[in-house]
Design goal:
By secondary structure, the protein is α/β, with parallel strands linked by helices. It has 5 helices and 5 strands; from the N terminus they run βαββαββααα. It has a 5-stranded parallel β-sheet with strand order 3-2-1-4-5, with helices on one face.
Length: 184
């Protein structure tokens, strides 16, 4: 089985979509995967099990990157194309089945919305596969193996940025009395 997974350019969006990919990996243990994404997110998928390729889609004028993707994958007969970008190109890729994200609803949590492309009732929680070399490098950054609470208060788009006060309140709640990270 061959699955084409079309996901995002931005790192945060790609991370949010990673649970959908993990669900597919778990559901289809014999499947081979190709991920199409932007250059910023490409390295997030390097350690995906049974990965055939990561197709880096560099933005081109007049949406030419979609035509480039089609040219790259057109010779393959895909069993499933999952398109989280809602691109028209996914309808021109030969596939036995396709799952294309529907209309975006800002009232639904993004992870639940992305999970709906596969008809999942429970949200597909983000999950990134790692390589031993990356795990070793991260262990060198963590002092004495102590727990680390990492917050990322930035985003490429202001509309995706949470107010700083909320990050502060979240950190206090996590680290405070009766919080899951109490005593760190």
């Amino acid at each position: 089985m061959k699955i084409l997974f079309i996901t995002y350019t931005r790192i945060g969006d790609a991370v949010l979509s990673s649970g959908v990919l993990k669900h597919l990996i778990d559901r289809y243990p014999d499947a081979r995967f190709t991920v199409a994404c932007g250059p910023l997110a490409a390295s997030l998928f390097d350690a995906v099990p049974r990965l055939d390729d990561v197709i880096v889609m560099n933005k081109q004028p007049f949406d030419g990157h979609w035509f480039s993707l089609w040219r790259t994958v057109r010779a393959v007969k895909w069993d499933l194309v999952v398109d989280l970008r809602r691109s028209l190109v996914s309808y021109f890729i030969r596939s036995r089945k396709r799952a294309v994200l529907g209309v975006t609803d800002n009232k639904i949590h993004r992870i639940s919305l992305l999970s709906s492309v596969l008809g999942l009732v429970e949200p597909a929680i983000p999950f990134l596969y790692t390589m031993p070399k990356n795990e070793e490098a991260s262990l060198r950054l963590i002092p004495d193996g102590r727990p680390v609470l990492a917050l990322a208060p930035m985003a490429a788009n202001k509309s995706k940025t949470w107010p700083l006060e909320r990050f502060i309140a979240l950190a206090r709640r996590l680290l405070g009395a009766d919080g899951p990270c109490e005593g760190w």
